[in-house]
Amino acid sequence: MMADVALEHAILVSLLEQPGSGYELARRFDRSIGRFWTATHQQIYKVLRRMEADGWVTAEEIGQDGRPDKRCYTVAEPGRDALTGWLREPVQPETVRHELAVKIRGAAFDDAAGRAALITEVERYRADHETTLRRYLTGEQRDFPDPADLDAGQRLQHVVLRGGIEYERMVLAWLDDVLHTLHDL
To answer: Transcription regulator PadR N-terminal domain location, by residue (predicted)?
Structure first.
């Protein structure tokens, strides 16, 4: 099995949804796949080259006027077989390591100044999640304006996005509870 297995499979899913260049794929990661799996443009290009060498994807050179040619990637049969095998494997529950939660528990052993600093950190953390939720909701309105008209693939994309939306809402509710508790100490 290859290293970074999950990235290869995220790329295969994206290319099956729509073939594209490395640049287009990286933009899709930034715009939608990045909601649940992050990768830098450099990581994506590196993995695409390895997947092409392994026969999982094929690339076609496409000429462009006034710009360098681009390579458009599609999933080859060995890549589809690898994805099918992976899709049928059981998924292990993720191990949660949450540094902020440990800091919150540790606040019981800190003074008022330390708790005030923690409140500032929780507020910053909350603002980040608020931004993420707004981005998800904007993407939902943009990409899924009429859920009744979605095909099977779009419905599955939408249910993943809804999971991200609900996760962010849950984190925000928890952070509000944390802030309320810290202010009451």
So the answer is: 11-84
C-alpha span between 128 and 2 (Å, rounded): 33
Is 30 a residue whose pLDDT tops 80?
Answer: no
- Strands of the sheet with 57-64, listed across from one edge: 20-21, 67-75, 57-64
Q: H helices within 59-111, ranges in order?
A: 77-87, 99-106
Report whether pLDDT(34) > 90.
no
CB within 8 Å of 130: residues ≥ 6 apart: 172
CA distances from 24 to 27, 43, 44, 105 (A): 5, 14, 11, 43
Do residues 158 and 133 lie in contact, with contact meaning Cβ atoms separated by under 8 Å? Answer: no
Coil/strand/helix, residue 89: coil
How do residues 139-185 score in pLDDT, each as one tens digit? Answer: 999 999 998 999 999 999 999 999 999 999 999 999 999 999 999 98
As a whole number of Å, the CA-based R_g of the chain is: 21
Phi, psi of 175 (to 5 degrees): -65, -35
Is the CB of residue 104 less than 8 Å from the CB of residue 179? no
Classified as helix, coil or strand, 72 is strand
Least Cα distance to 76 among 45, 46, 55 occurs for: 55
d(C-alpha 10, C-alpha 110), whole Å: 42
